[in-house]
DNA sequence: GTGAAAGCGCTAACAT
DNA sequence: ATGTTAGCGCTTTCAC
């Protein structure tokens, strides 16, 4: 492994100049830079990140804290973030909190503290106040994606508005008995999201002068089987069957579609179904939905963090920026699972 | 941020002793260790990973190189690996090669070279010879999970045997017209896996004295919609319809189940279907399958790497270990999608 | 625009 | 078992 002084020797300059030429920090003449770059690539020189980090205080690494890896939303956010990070020469270190809970303590007490990352983003995480405190105590840029996080800059769709939109779509099609399959705290690390979506659903009903019927709400777990079970209960009832279902996630909505089929109901003739997400399978099932774009959210989160790091370099004097709430776009996609109420 | 000498001062010992006490490398009396640990926790001291890495040459970080994040298998492997790594104080840095291909070059030419990781595992990756070369040139432990990688230690199920097992299950139920939905090179970064599975299928047929019929093979893309399309073509044929389908992945098998339903065929009465994976949705769909356990594969991969690192510390003289092929266990799980041929 | 040199915060000989 | 000290390979003042 060639070192910086090998490059310096070959290029006939000092190590300081090599560092400046390769990092872009500090003035170097074009001729010199060219020589250095040439020498570096000739030797196959790549800077040692440890040495560079130690000397500069910057790691060029971003931490991503997620509750699971097994859900489409989380992984899409990470993929999006990594797209922009890799492009900027940053690495992404993953802290997955699934598991017994020992993970959780270790990550917050140890891993995040040892200066391995310049900034952190979390995905759909419901953090204890103490954990938020630890995160902020790092003194590093932090962004929370998908769900509000008190005291932290966040990036998320407006869950309430999105739920309203989905519900209003059904109302506008003439539906009056509209059921909701949501989430519940017991199933999820994050309970703000299901709550906001439920509130949006109820608001839409009230604004349309429709009653909010407890019988038409089921709490589930955001999975396909969960949506199936919930829908089957509601659709199986011989009386007062809903004519439309709004599920808080596409996976639950797909479960609902399968439940309807198993009950001999046709979608959308007998029942309209809409979800939230625009999951990859939504198209296959003809599912109407409100798309959120987790990949883009990840990209945007990464961009926010890189900007903050840049700002910190430019004006180190500035106090830490105020936490900001960024709203990610979401759009209604109408497919074949929703239609007018006959 | 307190440093090691703050701890040393408070504990009344030298920095070397602090280092030894906290890392466990080198002898420290129990009394001293207790004092140091107490001082460290009192100050909230956490070692700076950069400084430690630079001085020791060890990063306590493992690199994971994956082709996508959006597939259940990959994320499960990573989750498994991270379970054991976090427990050992290791971080996991993720290199996701999805994207335009620029990623791919950058990762191999730059990110992996800058000494940020002690070891690397790859998941289901079909690497160019040059990329394998680069990986090995790191001089670090490398393990390939899910798919053979020439010159690299690997951990994978025996795809051929697994495919045979699935096919033999169908044969033992009296099926004689057994179709196969596989993968194809054009859809996948990795083409060994679909090929091995197809060969296993054909072997099982031949060994049972059954003909291998080109009409009964469809190449697809390992997704649910892909499996649906492939199955619909084969099952829709009015003549010579297969009585059983072996799909190379559960997602394709689930697509096949849905295709059968849409054609008015009952599973398993009219057609038996089996997959490979034991995907989380397999149970919901009653899908018979051959389970591989990607989480455990990830755990085992991590353990292999940690062992190799340990071995390298113990006997640094030893030449790099020979590449070893480890076979991960896989077991037939019979659910309700397969039954005797009437 | 470039070079000299002082660290960055640890670890690992080596000495005691 | 513990302390002293010389780096690890860079970046960044500070001179020039």
UniProtKB/TrEMBL annotation, chains A, B:
* InterPro entries the record matches: HTH_LacI, LacI/GalR-like_sensor, Lambda_DNA-bd_dom_sf, Peripla_BP_I
For whether the record's keyword set contains Transcription regulation, the answer is: yes
Task: Give start-end ranges for the coiled-coil region(s).
Answer: none
What the entry lists under Pfam families is as follows: LacI, Peripla_BP_3
Q: Which UniProt keywords apply?
A: DNA-binding, Transcription, Transcription regulation
Superkingdom: Bacteria
Q: What is this protein called?
A: DNA-binding LacI/PurR family transcriptional regulator
Taxonomic source organism: Leifsonia soli
């Amino acid at each position: 492994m060639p070192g910086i002084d090998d490059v310096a020797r070959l290029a006939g300059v000092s190590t300081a100049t090599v560092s400046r030429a390769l990092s872009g920090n500090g003035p170097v003449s074009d001729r010199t830079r060219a020589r250095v770059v040439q020498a570096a690539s000739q030797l196959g020189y790549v800077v040692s990140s440890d040495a560079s980090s130690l000397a500069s205080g910057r790691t060029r690494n971003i931490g991503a804290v997620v509750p699971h890896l097994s859900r489409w939303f989380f992984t899409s956010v990470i993929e999006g973030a990594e797209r922009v990070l890799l492009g900027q020469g940053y690495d992404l270190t993953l802290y997955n909190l699934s598991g017994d809970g020992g993970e959780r303590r270790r990550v917050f007490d140890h891993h995040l503290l040892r200066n391995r990352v310049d900034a952190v983003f979390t995905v759909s995480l419901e953090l204890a106040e103490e954990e938020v405190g630890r995160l902020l105590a790092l003194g590093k840029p932090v962004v929370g994606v998908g769900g509000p996080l008190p005291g932290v800059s966040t990036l998320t769709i407006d869950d309430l508005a999105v739920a309203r939109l989905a519900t209003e779509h059904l109302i506008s099609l003439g539906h009056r008995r509209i059921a909701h399959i949501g989430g519940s705290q017991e199933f999820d690390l994050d309970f703000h999201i299901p709550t906001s979506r439920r509130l949006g659903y109820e608001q839409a009903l009230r604004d349309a002068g429709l009653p909010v019927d407890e019988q038409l709400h089921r709490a589930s777990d955001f999975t396909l089987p969960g949506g199936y079970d919930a829908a089957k209960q509601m659709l199986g009832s011989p009386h007062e069957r809903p004519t439309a279902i709004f599920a808080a996630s596409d996976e639950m909505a797909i479960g609902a579609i399968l439940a309807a089929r198993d009950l001999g109901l046709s979608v959308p003739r007998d029942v309209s179904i809409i979800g939230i997400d625009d999951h990859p399978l939504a198209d296959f099932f003809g599912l109407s939905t409100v798309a959120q774009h987790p990949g883009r959210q990840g990209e945007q989160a990464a961009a926010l963090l890189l900007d903050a790091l840049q700002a910190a370099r430019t004006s180190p004097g500035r106090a830490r920026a105020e936490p900001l709430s960024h709203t990610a776009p979401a759009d209604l996609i109408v497919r074949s699972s929703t239609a007018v109420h006959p």
